[in-house]
Amino acid sequence: MQHWFGGDNLFTPSERRRGIPIGNQTSQFFANVFLDPLDHFVKERLRIPGYTRYVDDFLLFSDSKQQLGEAKAQIAEFLVGLRLRLHPRKCTVFPVSQGIRFLGYRVFPTHRLLVKDNVRRFRRRVRAMQADYARGLVSPQEVWTRLMSWSGHARQANTYRLRTRLFATIGFQRATSAGPRVAWRVVQQSTTERTVRQP
Fold it and tell me: 180: which residues sit within 8 A by CB, 6+ positions away?
């Protein structure tokens, strides 16, 4: 979708490259540099005490719904000067008691949960890994690394029972005679996971 800003002509959107490569090691650095003026605007001009930002995701907190509504309009106007727009569907004002979706978590005043989409994607990745492992395309160490990567992310929320339930159902077994016939599963122990290998 093309966007025009003040001073643009008909061809400006096609002449200017947009965005930075996602996943590039410089992405977070450039986002911090490019959006530094926004941080100063929110803290020094709008005087919003409750403000946090990670790359291009940010939250504002206030006891006044009206203040947040006015801040939203002022931020939208400020971002035009940076050739940026607020996401029309993701920029909303609502009570924190409903939970705030932020960085893959649903954050409540008293606890954090994983977003349901995150768990669904994890289940799909596990099924794909089980198929790859059965065909001998990935090693136990590769599977283990991926599982523990997700577990490290998940444990930042209140997910002990979720992880226990999920890992209790995950097993891996070779389907061919290629390589050692090793079946194994993941077991939750206290706050850590470990591999149980069976001959």
Answer: 174
Strand runs labelled E in 33-84: 50-54, 57-61
From residue 197, give the alpha-carbon distance in Å to each of 147, 176, 183, 187.
16, 18, 6, 10
Distance between CA atoms of residues 61 and 116, nearest Å:
24
Q: What is the pLDDT of residues 129-177, one digit of tens each?
A: 999 988 889 888 898 899 999 999 999 999 999 998 888 888 888 765 5
Residue 31, Cα to own-chain centre: how many angstroms?
A: 16
Are 150 and 122 in contact by the 8 Å Cβ rule? The answer is yes
Residues in a beta bridge with 193: 188
Q: What is the DSSP string of 84-124?
A: ----TTT-----GGG-EEETTEEE-SS-EEE-HHHHHHHHH
CA distances from 181 to 53, 109, 133, 174, 178 (A): 48, 48, 11, 6, 8
With 0.70 as the threshold, say if the pTM is over it: no
Give the H/E segment covering residue 188: strand 183-189
Phi, psi of 98 (to 5 degrees): -80, -10
